[in-house]
Amino acid sequence: MEITYNPTDLLRLQSELSSSRQIVLLGHVSPDGDAVGSTLALSRVLRKQGHSTKVLYPTPYPHSFGFLEGASEVVIAKHSPEEAIRLLEEAEMIFLMDFNEPKRVEQLEQPLISSKAFKVMIDHHLHPTGMVDVCFSYPQKAATCLLTYELIMALGWETYMDKQVAECIYTGMMTDTGGFNYNSEDPCLYTALSVLLEHGIEKDAITSLITRSFSVDKVRLNAYLLANNLTFFPKYHTAIITMGMKEKSMFEYQVGDTEGLVNEPLAAKDIHFSIFLHEQAKYTKISLRSKGKFPANEFASKFFNGGGHHNAAGAEVYASLNSVYDMVLEAVKLMHPEDND
């Protein structure tokens, strides 16, 4: 869907960037390909214009994105909390990328709110909070990376596009659409893709690096979870996968090792909704994927104060894995009252 961006917002952003700035590009907790790609892409574009930039995440990104330009320079708040807070305190401008509420940056929430920096949101999730000076929020866009690309063009910054920027943008577009398999019917997505290809990206090689360059432990972990921790509920067209601390220890779990696992049950006939429950130290993470008309985001927000998109959503619940499993199953039943006896 083609969008005409608010010229007042574009002019205000350009005005704020008219002189050199100390800029932080902030991604959400457990950064995915869209958060990583959009922050690194925009960081490189801004650096080319003479700005000093730092990319900051609350927690580490998956190793599969380590090949992207600038990834090795990212500051991780979990590893360097004092530096992370200092960056937010000293920033003159902060870009909030791929999230729209401060709780999504966990321990950086209060430093972000307290910062006097000029704040810009670039995001594609529903219901943005009013905590920024300029907001580019378009839920109809498939990925924040697509939105970032279009803003680069709308601001007249296409001269700063290069292969490295294009690789970052492609990463977010590809991962947030499941390899262009869902939420991917916007013609603008493919218009952007054609431009990225013209900049020399090796699309197939990047896709392989992200989705086919796994450690042996990762492959074994995913196989184990599908064989032992996957339950189908045909009556509700639903599948649930669980991963507890035991499995993470057995296979030396690394961040990103289960990326995409939640999509696998959707390959089964008549399964329209897939749920992955991932036990963390203090909470259980819920990842949701659906196909067709089943609203994953409605399920997340209605029962677990989560959010996301129609076919991809998530939430976090401060309860044990077993407790959350019971909650999720009950919620599934409530979403299918016609199938309950």
UniProtKB/TrEMBL annotation:
InterPro entries: DDH_dom, DHH_sf, DHHA1_dom, Oligoribo/pAp-PDE_c-di-AMP_PDE. Residues 22-173 form the DDH domain. GO terms for molecular function: nucleic acid binding. Residues 254-319 form the DHHA1 domain. It comes from the Bacteria. This is Bifunctional oligoribonuclease/PAP phosphatase NrnA. It comes from Porphyromonas levii.
